[in-house]
Design a protein that fits this description.
Number of helices of chain A: 0
Strand content of chain B: 35-45%
Structural class of chain A: mainly beta
Shape of chain A: globular
Number of strands of chain B: 9
Largest sheet of chain A: 7 strands, mixed
Order of helices and strands of chain A: EEEEEEEEEEE
Radius of gyration of chain A: 13 Å
Largest interface: A-B, 26 and 21 residues
Radius of gyration of chain B: 13 Å
Order of helices and strands of chain B: EEEEEEEEE
Structural class of chain B: mainly beta
Largest sheet of chain B: 5 strands, mixed
Oligomer: heterodimer
Chain lengths: ~110, ~110
């Protein structure tokens, strides 16, 4: 069964550093998403991406964040200068008939 | 904010049916009801979705009230692996739409052996 994959599973970084989280969506899906979940809190929508551009973004998705589909298979989330409050699980998702989520990347900012 | 309301937690016994309720009193004619679940330390997992008619799949059944202001997710025979947080989400596209899904706190389902 096709699935969304994410790498790395865990990323530890220092505050102020740039991180790139990677995702491989399901191959025939056209909509891609990033969500985050701070420990003990709700899953929060960050951004949706369609036809090589951002479709919608939440107020969380500020100028520190960017997304890219660099090569037709990968979908990345970049955080330019990480803050302590960026520590969270980050989930990639892609949509066909339904929305499927990846296993997540746990980002820890020290 | 989430447009649906669900009980914070429910408890059931293994091998018994589970009925998880959800209220969505502000639902519009084009809104679908989606159910996802999140097992511990995992990403959300699609369970089922529907518009007006009751729906069945290999995981669960979805019963939608005639006025569409509430729905019930039915797990026919719960197993310990069904212990998870279950989210009921109201969204205007059948697959979630470009605007993403709005998760609430969901219902924490506890299964007793």
């Amino acid at each position: 069964e096709p699935e969304v994959t994410q790498t790395p599973s865990h990323q530890v970084t220092q505050m102020g550093q740039e991180v790139i989280l990677r995702c491989v969506p399901i191959s025939n899906h056209l909509y891609f998403y990033w969500y985050r979940q701070i420990l003990g809190q709700k899953v929060e929508f960050l951004v949706s991406f369609y036809n090589n551009e951002i479709s919608e973004k939440s107020e969380i998705f500020d100028d520190q964040f960017s997304v890219e589909r660099p090569d037709g298979s990968n979908f990345t989330l970049k955080i330019r200068s990480t803050k302590l409050e960026d520590s969270a699980m980050y989930f990639c998702a892609s949509r066909g008939q339904s929305t499927f989520f990846g296993p997540g990347t746990r980002l820890t900012v020290l | 904010d989430a447009k649906t309301t669900q009980p914070n937690s429910m408890e059931s016994n293994e091998e018994e049916p589970v009925h998880l309720p959800c209220n969505h009193s502000t639902i519009s004619g084009t809104d679908y009801i989606h159910w996802y679940r999140q097992l511990p330390s995992q990403g959300p997992e699609y369970v089922i979705h529907g518009l007006t008619s009751n729906v069945n799949n290999r995981m669960a059944s979805l019963a939608i009230a005639e006025d569409r202001k509430s729905s019930t997710l039915i797990l026919h025979r719960a197993t310990l692996r069904d212990a998870a947080v279950y989210y009921c989400i109201q969204n205007s596209y059948s697959g979630g739409g470009a605007d993403g899904l709005t998760f609430g706190k969901g219902t924490h389902l506890i299964i007793q052996p």
